[in-house]
Amino acid sequence: MNPLPMIIADLRALRWTAAAIVALVALAVAIGVAIGAQERALRQASARAADDFDLLIGAPGSQTQLVMSAIYLQPEALPLVDGRLLNELVRDPRVAAVAPLAFGDIARGHPVIGTTLAFAGRWGRVQPSEGRLFSREGEAVLGADVTYGLGDKIEPSHAIAGHWPRRGVADAEEASHRHEGHAYVAVGRLPRLGSPFDRAILVPVESVWEVHGLGNGHAGEGAALGPPFDGQRIPGVPALVVKPKAVADAYALRARYRQGGTMAFFPAEVLVGLYRTLGDVGQVLSVASVLNAVLILAAIFLLLVAVTGLRRRRYAVLRALGAPPAYVLLVVWIGMAGLVAAGCLVGLGLGAAATLAVSGLFEAQTGLRLSFALGSAELAQVGLILLLGSLAALIPAALSYRGSITAGLRG
Amino acid sequence: MPASTVSERQGGGVRPLHFSGIQVDHRDGDGRLFRVLDVSDFVVPPGALIGLRGPSGSGKTSLLHLAAGFFLPDAGSISWGDLVVSTMPGAARDRWRRDTVGFVFQDFHLVPELDVLANITLPASFSGWRQTSEQEARATTLAGRMGLTDLRRRAAVLSRGEQQRVAIARALFNAPALILADEPTASLDPVHAAEVGSLLVEVAKESGATLLCASHDPVLLARMQQVGMIGDGPFQLKAAA
After folding, report:
1. Which intervals hold domain ABC transporter (chain B) (predicted)?
2. Mean pLDDT of chain A
3. What separation, in Å, do the N-terminal and C-terminal C-alpha atoms of chain B show?
4. SS in 3 state form for chain B?
5. Burial class of residue A62 in the structure, from the number of CB atoms within 10 Å of its CB (0-12 exposed, 13-18 middle, 19+ buried)
6. Hey, are the CB atoms on A405 and B98 less than 8 Å from each other?
7. Alpha carbon distance A251, A255 (integer Å)
8. Is the pTM of this model over 0.95?
9. How do the domains of chain B map onto residue ranges?
């Protein structure tokens, strides 16, 4: 038997109802897919951004705030840790590398971060995509999305609390807090990292100290950049990034610098807490989206039963012409299951589009690049909707061939 | 070219149709039983053209539905030759109907979204995945016999007369040995009714099929060999006027 001609005829006859069913299923699927994919993408992107930050040390305060400022570059005034700690950590045999992070300046809305050459190259993991890394004071290396070009002069300004500048634009507020007489020259650009550092300008920490009139941490002019800092006065910094030699060293360092006027922690600890909260929110949203899907499926089921009832005569005619019950069942079931399947496919596309759109907005806000990927959970959810929809469609399909032909012909 | 031949028939040759001791009861609004049909013995000889006449609600349609095996009588039996249709299981009765019966409805019951050709060949889709070239040729011949030239027009845009011609072609597509027509001209104007009635009788004669036709149309009933009277006393056959 070949029920396709009748299925196509049925879909043509019901085109508006069919479009409504596809739209409703697509909506249910898209909401579920978008919520699941977005949450996972956010976890992955935020974890990726924290990859090079094994251990953070800062002044006692909020760990979350330090993570947000040091890794995600969300501007906030933070207390400083004593700069001499840098030298102590450099000498510590458990430390593979240490870098200061000095923030608080902006240029055209891009955060200017003072650090070391080693950290600018992410401990040797990253090579500039253009030019080179900085090698002396007054040089800068640009993140992938920074609007300056190589060779451009970069004039930093004080970032002001509560002022959220537009990226790439030096507004009047920024201009009014410029560090007069100080400028950097862009000498290189980093490849895309998918993190907020893509929009940051990295400069030697010595330059940041100099710009703020604190010296450069070294004893004499012409000293090599980076630690050790042998100056009379080593200025403080908001955060230190430490790369321990081994896991045991990491725990020992964390324990050591949790006391004595400092705070030390693994950013992953903070992220796990954030993910737990995010996961709770995600679970609530997932349950809401499942309930939403159930409601929509129930509405579709009632619609299918009503539509099948209206088409009782048509199916009775098929039986009267000699169609076997299986033919009528397939006409109704394949048609309806096909609509649910089409809705699932459209929903996957809509979900992907919604996720990409939200990701774009999120990236514009935070610099975190969220990449869309369908996970097994979303696919399982779509599969469940398809399965339930197809099973539900069996009921009107069975009703349509089990009725009396004579009663059906009467309408 | 005849509309069908004995060799094309899937359900075998034309046989006598025998209604024996038929009783059909329904319940009224108060739940009380009332008799819709009471036919003690009615034999339709093979190839006969029999009209059924009677007032509305007298059971003409019920008799046709019984003959097609749409439902079973409360008492009595319906036989097609030596096959007792009324005792067949549902699936076997469906198969028998598909192979033996062509039904023409008063309201045509075409599929408006399908074209003329697809409507005529619709019964072929009940048993095969692809239409054979013979099936298409047969549908084209039937359509030509019915005066239908444009096979790609959708049924929804046909006139009522054209729709009933398509419905007759569809009923004849499987070369049925038994053609059942339920008031085939009732919803047509007199000119179209005369054309369609004439065609129906002609193709039944050409094919040698038995025709059982319920109608109020005296012109159509006059074309039959005999007319059965229902609802006005016991069922009886009379020669057509």
Report:
1. 17-241
2. 86
3. 29
4. CCCCCHHHCCCCCCCCEEEEEEEEEEECCCCCEEEEEEEEEEEECCCCEEEEECCCCCCHHHHHHHHHCCCCCCEEEEEECCEEHHHCCHHHHHHHHHHHEEEECCCCCCCCCCEHHHHHCHHHHHCCCCCCHHHHHHHHHHHHHCCCCCCCCEHHHCCHHHHHHHHHHHHHCCCCCEEEEECCCCCCCHHHHHHHHHHHHHHHHHHCCEEEEECCCHHHHHCCCEEEECCCCCCEEEECC
5. middle
6. no
7. 6
8. no
9. 6-239
Distance CA A289, CA A32 (A): 5
Contact B182, B103 (CB under 8 A): yes
d(CA A266, CA B213): 91
CA distance A146 to A136: 20
Q: Residue type for A104, please?
A: G
- How far does A287 lie from chain B, in Å, by closest CA? 42
Environment class of A245 (CB within 10 Å of its CB; exposed 0-12, middle 13-18, buried 19+): middle
The DSSP bridge partners found for residue B34 are B26
Q: Which residues of A touch B59 (CB under 8 A)?
A: none
What is the spatial distance between Cα B51 and Cα B35, in angstroms, rounded to a whole number?
A: 22
By C-alpha distance, the chain B residue nearest A325 is: B91
Count other C-beta atoms under 10 Å from residue B67's C-beta.
22
Give the span between the Cα atoms of A322 and A232, in whole angstroms.
102
Of A177, A106, A183, A104, the residue nearest A139 (C-alpha): A183
Amino acid at the residue B101: V
The answer to whether A5 contacts chain B (CB < 8 Å) is yes
Task: Compute the Cα dihedral for A388, A389, A391, A396 and give only its sign.
Answer: positive
CB contact under 8 A, A5 and B70: no
- Residues B86, B72: contact at Cβ < 8 Å? yes
- Counting Cβ atoms within 10 Å, is residue A221 exposed (0-12), middle (13-18) or buried (19+)? exposed
B113 reaches A (C-beta below 8 A): yes
The pLDDT of residue A162 = 64
Question: What pLDDT sits at residue B178?
Answer: 94
In one-letter notation, the amino acid at residue A281 is V
B59's torsion region: left (phi>0), alpha (psi -120 to 50) or beta?
left
Which residue type, as a one-letter code, is found at position A228? P
Burial of B190 (0-12, 13-18, 19+ CB in 10 A): exposed
Distance CA A109, CA A174 (A): 8
The CATH classification number of B6-239 equals 3.40.50.300
Ranges A26-40, B94-108, B170-184: which has the least confidence:
A26-40
